[in-house]
Write a structure and sequence with these properties.
The protein is α+β, with helices and mostly antiparallel strands and about 550 residues long. Helix content is about 40%, strand content about 20%. It starts with 6 loop residues before the first helix and ends with a helix.
Length: about 550
């Protein structure tokens, strides 16, 4: 055997096999990635050297990256270094700055509200203050990005602002020391009546579960026996926070095993993961309704999908956006990042959350907001079994539910539609601008009348006819054509929106959210469906 397989022969066989393997691999895999990188390097180098004008090689590279990702899915994206801080802040639940929410109204930075506990609030900066100078230089005409650049900054740094306040002749000068400012996930939590609690969650960030538990405990102490969880327009966020939220409401299976919340599948097996609800929780038998909109995505869909699959509660509203792709963020050498899709999300019953994007990114972006849905009960989905767009699945108790992307509600309830007149008022930001003027003369009396009592304000404050007439005159002066029929049709909405802006001035986002609820037709219908929610969850 030693003679037959000598060392020179073995080396010859190894070399032939190695070279042959490379050639076969090249044929099978197509263009080699290193060849493509070399090609791109050559094109970039030649362009920079010979193009008729000077070129920005960094911009060309970033454009090439975006072009590459544009041929993948809609959620694989390149994040510039300059955008990284804002992206991180959105989900960390905090940022560093002076602590105000603002809007640019008629070219002037207007404080919508100081954030409680932040440095601006502690110095006495108030809602409706106008910031006209930043560090001694005029801030009139600033864009949102310019405002953020001027006011945000590292904790401990200082910024000077000059403020115009109604009723005070001279400019007010403030020197603000920037600090860490919290961003909250739970915008509002309140009792809607003597037994129905309401919680509005606007994102899934680092502190969402902590805020959610605190809101539930508060409402329980106020007598909550049923809960509406509002995830409308919630774009999602951290997966672990979605799992923890579902865990609050899901109990163990009949055999004592934990219930699956969501699982992922990717091309690479290391990205296949399963997530379960483990803990016992005092809210596992609480009658539950979750509200969705066509803007609810990602983590919102994970929570509602798990609740629906396990027949734990009722889903009402519109079919959700259908964003079920798992991204991993890879940092790049210059401080930018690549957020790349590595797997897909599936609900416990096997439904793929992701909506199809085969017809292109442009159609994908608008499709969720233009789809036609028939209102009514969908407790048992009876669409044709031949419907390939909406394949059928079954819940834990055998109910038929639909796949095909997004979470289709058990009851489809559409929001009311606005006339073109009201849409124009919204787009021009005229509600906020009018309220800013209104509070200049009426703010103190409102503050003294309600003394910080939001529930009293919601019950007793109304936008009277005189104020409505003044608003119409104001909008006409702003060159918005008055349409009598549209105004009449949307009058309740207009009054509610003006009231909400006033409430936000004193009670922040909670005031805004709760002031809009009395004219919320989706919420009104949802509140009538608790018997169905209890029946599905077998809580009767």
């Amino acid at each position: 055997m030693k003679k037959r397989f000598s060392i020179p022969l073995m080396l010859t066989i190894f070399v032939v096999a190695f070279v042959g393997g490379i050639m076969v691999n090249h044929v099978i895999s197509g263009d080699n990635i290193y060849e493509q990188l070399s090609k791109f390097k050559d094109v970039l180098s030649l362009t920079e050297k010979y193009y008729v004008e000077d070129v920005d090689s960094q911009k060309l590279t970033e454009d090439a990256i975006n072009g590459l990702l544009g041929n993948l899915d809609p959620h694989s994206v390149y994040i510039k270094q300059s955008q990284m801080q804002r992206v991180t802040e959105d989900f960390q639940g905090k940022f560093e700055g002076i602590g105000v929410e603002f809007s640019v109204v008629s070219d002037t930075i207007t404080v919508v509200q100081p954030i409680g506990g932040g440095p601006s609030a502690s110095l006495g900066i108030m809602a409706n203050d106008k910031i006209v100078k930043i560090d001694g230089k005029s801030a009139i005409g600033f864009t949102n990005d310019q405002v953020m650049k001027g006011l945000k900054g590292p904790k401990g740094t200082k910024v000077a602002v000059s403020i115009v306040r109604s009723g005070i002749k001279d400019l007010l000068e403030f020197e603000i020391i920037r600090d860490v400012i919290p961003l909250y996930s739970v915008d509002a939590s309140a009792m809607l009546n003597d037994k129905v609690g309401y919680i509005n969650v606007t994102r899934f960030a680092e502190t969402t579960n902590k805020e959610m538990v605190a809101a539930l405990q508060k409402l329980k102490s106020q007598g909550m026996k049923e809960l509406i969880l509002d995830l409308r327009l919630n774009p999602g966020g951290y997966l672990d926070q979605a799992v923890k939220m579902a865990d609050i409401f899901l109990d163990a299976s009949s055999d004592g095993s934990p219930r699956k919340v969501v699982y992922t599948k990717g091309r690479r097996t290391e990205f296949n993961e399963e997530y379960f609800a483990y803990t016992n929780n005092e809210f596992e038998k609480l009658p539950l309704i979750i509200m969705l909109s066509n803007g609810s995505a990602s983590a919102s869909e994970i929570v509602s999908g798990a609740i629906q699959d396990w027949d734990r509660g009722l889903i009402v509203g519109e079919t959700s956006f259908g964003k079920g792709l798992v991204q991993r963020q890879f940092p790049l050498s210059d401080g930018s990042a690549l957020r790349l899709t590595i797997a897909r999300y599936y609900t416990p019953s096997g439904r793929l959350i992701q909506r199809s994007y085969k017809d292109g990114k442009d159609k994908y972006e608008v499709e969720a907001f233009t789809r036609e849905e028939k209102e009514g009960e969908n407790i048992e989905h009876k669409e044709s079994s031949a419907d390939s767009i909406h394949p059928k699945f079954k819940t834990a108790n055998g109910r038929v539910i639909l796949g095909g992307g997004g979470i289709t509600p058990d009851f489809i309830i559409k929001p009311g539609t606005l006339t073109k007149y009201s849409v124009a008022l919204n787009r021009r930001n005229l509600f906020l601008e009018f309220v800013s003027h209104y509070l200049s003369t009426n703010g103190e009396s409102i503050k003294n009348r309600y003394k910080g009592n939001l529930s009293e304000f919601i019950k007793k404050f109304d936008i009277d006819e005189e104020t409505m007439n003044n608003f119409v005159v104001f909008t006409k002066d702003k060159k918005v054509e008055f349409v009598q029929d549209d105004f009449k049709k949307d009058k309740d909405f207009i009054q509610s929106r003006l009231k909400a802006y006033i409430a936000r001035n004193y009670w922040g986002n909670e005031g805004w959210t709760l002031s809009n609820l009395p004219v919320d037709t989706q919420l009104e219908k949802a509140m009538s469906l608790f018997p169905e929610a209890q029946k599905i969850a077998r809580l009767n």
